[in-house]
């Protein structure tokens, strides 16, 4: 466990000291403080083994061929499209929110800013990058002060976050998010086949992976759309930060997950039985492989 001064400075207190009035603060993670923040994560993960995750990346540059609507694509076709985009592009930001239990409020939030992407040099979707800039991402600061992908991969592997069956992951429409993290952890392009990719998701992130977009299928048709729309329908407010920033969206994802779980998955074991290990859009193959 970190020293009390260190923990207090970072906004962390043991779970028994977290009160209802605890105000969540997002920790910005750059190259000059990444080692310190991951020391904190390693100390905290035992107390807060539920992790909500979101990423930001420079849009998509490859689209379905023959004007095929994504809803009409097979899981294998969707994965091929994801792979084409993720292999060609750079991750910009990773948001992580830690909580003590499936019903607990968020305790810690980290926004990890990466350095590799340069819009002057690398392919991207201009509208997507413009939206990120308008939402407060300083891409010049990312290039100057950001964490390298190689350093982040090493820190994740030693953090207790990945390859740890005691950690559960919560996401929203997360096939791209996990694809970017798998690519980061592997240090190379994604595997060719969907089954190989899903195997890696299970190896790195374990059996308890929950995609809120998939969970919505079991909510009696009451929930539709993206994260903002779903949160608004559930009267879940954004607790910290701004939309289209990874840590803020990971916090909102966590609070939305908590609300859905309390409303639609009250029966013991129903969430795990219906939703564990299934990524939205890759459900058919995922259910055969992971569950």
What would you note in describing this structure?
The chain has 13 helices and 6 strands. It is an alpha/beta fold. Helix 3 packs across helix 7 (175-186), helix 7 (175-186) packs across helix 8 and helix 10 (227-233) packs across helix 11. The longest helix is centred in the last third of the chain and has 19 residues, at 246-264. The protein is globular, with a radius of gyration of 18 Å. The chain starts with a helix and ends with a helix. The model is unreliable at 1-11, 15-21 and 285-291 (pLDDT under 50).
Morphology call: globular
Q: Tell me the fraction of residues in β-strands, as a range.
A: 5-15%
Instruction: List the helices and strands in order.
Output: HEHEHEEHHHEHHEHHHHH
Let me know the average pLDDT: 90
> What would you call the quaternary organization?
single chain
Taking strands numbered 1, 2, ... along the chain, how are they ordered across the largest sheet? 1-4-3-2-5-6
Subunit structure: Component of the CCR4-NOT complex, at least composed of CRR4 and CAF1 proteins.
EC number: 3.1.13.4
Family: Belongs to the CAF1 family.
Main location: cytoplasm
């Amino acid at each position: 466990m970190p020293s009390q001064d260190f923990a207090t400075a970072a906004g962390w207190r043991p779970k028994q000291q977290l009160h209802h009035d605890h105000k969540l603060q997002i920790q910005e993670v750059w190259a000059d403080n990444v080692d310190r923040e991951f020391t904190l994560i390693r100390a905290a993960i035992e107390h807060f083994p539920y992790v909500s995750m979101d990423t930001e990346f420079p849009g998509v540059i490859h689209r379905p061929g023959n004007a095929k609507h994504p809803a009409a694509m097979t899981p294998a076709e969707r994965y091929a499209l994801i792979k084409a985009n993720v292999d060609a592009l750079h991750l910009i930001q990773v948001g992580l929110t830690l909580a003590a239990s499936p019903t607990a409020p968020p305790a810690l939030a980290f926004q990890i800013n990466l350095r590799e992407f340069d819009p002057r040099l690398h392919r991207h979707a201009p509208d997507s990058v413009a939206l990120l800039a308008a939402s407060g991402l300083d891409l010049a600061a990312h290039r100057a002060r950001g964490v390298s992908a190689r350093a982040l991969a090493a820190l994740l592997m030693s953090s207790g976050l990945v390859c740890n069956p005691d950690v559960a992951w919560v996401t929203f429409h997360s096939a791209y998010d996990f694809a970017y993290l798998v690519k980061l952890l592997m240090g190379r392009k994604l595997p060719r086949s969907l089954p190989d990719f899903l195997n890696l998701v299970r190896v790195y992130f374990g059996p308890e992976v929950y995609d809120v977009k998939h969970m919505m299928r079991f909510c009696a048709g009451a929930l539709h759309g993206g994260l903002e729309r779903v949160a608004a329908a559930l009267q879940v407010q954004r607790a910290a930060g701004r939309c289209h920033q990874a840590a803020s969206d990971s916090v909102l994802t966590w609070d939305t997950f908590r609300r859905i779980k309390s409303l639609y998955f009250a029966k013991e074991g129903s969430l795990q039985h219906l939703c564990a290990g299934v990524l939205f859009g890759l459900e058919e193959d995922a259910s055969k492989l992971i569950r």
